[in-house]
Amino acid sequence: MNAPRVRWAVLGVVFVAAFVALGLTVRAAPLALDAAIARGLDGVWREPLGTAAGIVSDVLGPVLPVVFGIGLLLAAALRRQHAGVLLRLVLVLLVCRLTSLLKPVFDRQRPRAYPELSYPSGHVVSAASTGLVAILLCAWLAPRAVRWVAAAAVAATVLCAAARIVLGVHWLSDTAGAALAVTGAGLLAASGVGLLPSRAARLPAGETSA
Questions:
Q1: How far is CA 123 from the centre of its chain?
Q2: Chain Cα centroid distance, residue 151
Q3: pTM of the model as a whole
Q4: Which residues lie closer than 8 Å to 21 by C-beta, 6 or more apart?
Q5: CB within 8 A of 142, min separation 6: which ones?
Q6: Which of 75, 161, 172, 190 fits as disulfide partner to 195, beta carbons 3.0 to 4.6 Å?
Q7: Which class for 66: exposed (0-12), middle (13-18), buried (19 or more C-beta within 10 A)?
Q8: What is the DSSP letter of 81?
């Protein structure tokens, strides 16, 4: 593994370590900020704002990476010249999405009565995983779009996190942990399969399209 890939992998380890540290910190009791936000939003999920948050949650939830992953597989079948990159992106997407299966490790309860465990937020993992892989996709095949896609990915992830908090089914730290987990796992997986550094980083000066 060359030096740039090692740097990305090390950064991934740092994010994963931060995810684990946060999870171990909050599994016994919520942070003061967690508790304050939960108290302030108590019962809001029954109001119109909660209805809107539910719609956002459905759109940006677990269905998002599934649809995106299927799209990448179809594109790989149709665009054979890019199949290698697209299939590696699917692998990164899968690795990122699977971080939500770590919930039993932390065994954290939700702010209100709700099925399943809390840390990390699976919905935020879904939104962040899709966003991260979309950024990598653009970095390889449409470098000029990276900035806009990155902004949209961050906005979607934050919106999804806000929706889950408004619904009272996640603490703020659950959503932060999801973002840390996806970033760390994504960087490790992407560097491991040769997607980092991206093609955009290797283009000659002035060349911005695949």
A1: 9
A2: 14
A3: 0.92
A4: none
A5: 209, 210
A6: 190
A7: middle
A8: G
